[in-house]
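Dear colleague,

Thank you for sharing your sequence with our group. We've completed the structure prediction you requested, and as agreed, I am returning the results in plain text so they can be pasted directly into your records. Please verify that the sequence below matches your submission; if there's any discrepancy, let me know and we will rerun it promptly.
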Amino acid sequence: MRWKIPGLFLSSDIVGKSDHNFWQKKSDLFERKKNKMKRISRYWSYAKSKAHKLTVLTSTLVFLVAASSCQKSTFKNPSVASPETVLAWNEIATQAFIHFPEQQAPPPMIESRVYAMVNIAMHDALNNIIKKYKTYALSSMDKAANPDAAVTQAAYDVLIAEAPWYKSSYDSLLTVSLSAVIQSDSKAKGIALGHASALAIKNNRINDGSATAQFQYTPGNLPGQYQFTAPFDAAPFNGFYAIPGWGKVKPFGLTSAAQFRPGAPYSILSNEYATDFNEIKNLGSINSTLRTADQTHLALFWMESSPIGWNRIARIIITNQHGNNMDAWKVARLLALLQIVEADAYIGSCEAKTFYNFWRPVTAIHNAATDGNPDTSPDQNWEVLAFPTPPIADYPSAHATAGGAAASVISAFFGKDKISFTTTSTTNSGTRSFSSLSQAAMENALSRIYIGYHFRNAVMQGKTLGYNIGDYIFAHYLQPE
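Please find the predicted structure tokens below.
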């Protein structure tokens, strides 16, 4: 299960080539003296040559088996396609990362790139059969192609290339999905179109910068500048920063990673900084007596990977909106837009993080005696609610950026913010309910204060950055024909 150890553990190896062979390194057992807890940091094997046999996505397969046992369709009318097929492949992509064979899955930046490619491939496959929306990477119309076959093959090909460890589950879903389509020339054309759609987006992302995004990062040494945080500041990490080059990765939709870069963080000498400092010092520590039970619950609930969490929210809302003519084309478009903005949210926020290089709250609180601000005071024993702090700069919060971007594009798609839904999480029990997308985005942002990872300014500016990215992408990509 993902995130059994709270936090984000990363490898110092190169992020990987286009086939994503990357990040294999085991760390020793280390002891965290403050809480007398032993934790093991696990690194990842992301090898294309090894396909790990894991649990099949049971609920999806049961649904598709039931559907195929009722009736096989020749799809003489290709506009009749299954939105459930799109949803099934969207979900199995997230399941691949939830069931990553090592204890810690790759970070959300990597996930967001994979999800964007998968959902773009499905969108393009459908819109090269009936062109309802503009495509992203492929222009190769085949009106006779079967849409479910095209969607299935497109998603499968991308996932096998980008997340191969879950191959046995992809194979099972591929078999069930294609068996629901009667053998015909239309089916063969759909499979061929799916291959072409996957190839188009894979070719589009060749040399996008992701292969060279991990390298040794040189931190600052002055008050206010990012410094390595525990345990990444000591052996076996010896100074590690997560994917410092991700801000240089080619965006999926933005004109540049810096297109909506927020203004500078507060000066550490300012009153605003002191206010944020004291807020997180009081509310974000593991031993806080001021954080409420609900704030603790939401902090751990939203600790989940944003691309996984917001994918789930989108699927829930799509299911709830089934009466609004949510056909396969609409579902694929929404999910593709969502994952484009999630991917660009991480690229844009990571660009700003390395540009400003602002220190994390844990570093600031431990070293407050050096910041020159009379309204801050140090606490050498202060620690975050969920150790460790992710090894990346504070400002702006990528997590808040991803939430803002997702809320923006989903609300724009449905033409309203006030959409009620209830969702779950892989990082905490129970459910949380919302009356609007903006409410969820705000709670997602504030969770990073209560967990101790980000100053308030970082999360608020991150959320705004996300909304800016979402608004731009929705206005410029996958528009109706």
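Summary note from our side: Residues 216-476 form a domain with the Vanadium-containing Chloroperoxidase; domain 2 fold (CATH 1.10.606.20).

Kind regards,
the structure core
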